[in-house]
């Protein structure tokens, strides 16, 4: 079987990389990881060795190269159907895709003002920036709706773990970092995601990253 390699950015900061990492870990497939430290003079050259877009994450599977976190997750869902990375029922899958792509292409204020800084705990003026409260309110309402309508069978947004959970995992870390309160109905989901073995492993690696001090 072809080897799987996931190229990721610094684990403390690369929200885009965390998503396919969680999805790939969920498939149970063995994979190699290449970590490119972000924001160094060598970053662009190192990423260019792997990525046609000049960005991480990138997945290599034999001769196949897939870039962009959503494309990678879709590729994994197709390649490893037994992992059930999307809900099985078509209407639920459509909902999960909508939730996922809303995160992929939206929430600009949140991205700009509350960047992922996984291991930090801080308050920032960004919390009051225009659009941030609206993004937070929309995310919490959206996720509460998923849990209420589809979360009966398990602790994740659609019961079992899916790509939607992977896409909102970086949001959980943002809320924790910046002290954004979770609605009570979302705390068990938050804890389920933070308790995933892959999430724990990623967080531990982020804690050990050498370039961390430059951001504090
Ligand atoms: N839409 C892309 C965005 C990827 C992205 O922006 N990655 C950042 C790191 S989190 C990157 O590679 N930046 C290049 C750099 O820092 O030089 C995806 O979903 O994968």
From TrEMBL:
One of its GO terms (biological process) is glutathione metabolic process. Residues 4-84 form the GST N-terminal domain. Keywords: Transferase. The keyword Lipid metabolism does not apply. It comes from the Bacteria. It holds the Pfam family GST_N_2. InterPro entries: Glutathione-S-Trfase_C_sf, Glutathione_S-Trfase, Glutathione_S-Trfase_N, Thioredoxin-like_sf. CDD domains: GST_C_3 (cd03194), GST_N_1 (cd03043). GO terms for molecular function: glutathione transferase activity; maleylacetoacetate isomerase activity. SUPFAM superfamilies: GST C-terminal domain-like, Thioredoxin-like. The keyword Transferase applies. PANTHER family: MALEYLACETOACETATE ISOMERASE (PTHR42673). This is Glutathione S-transferase family protein. It comes from Corallococcus terminator.
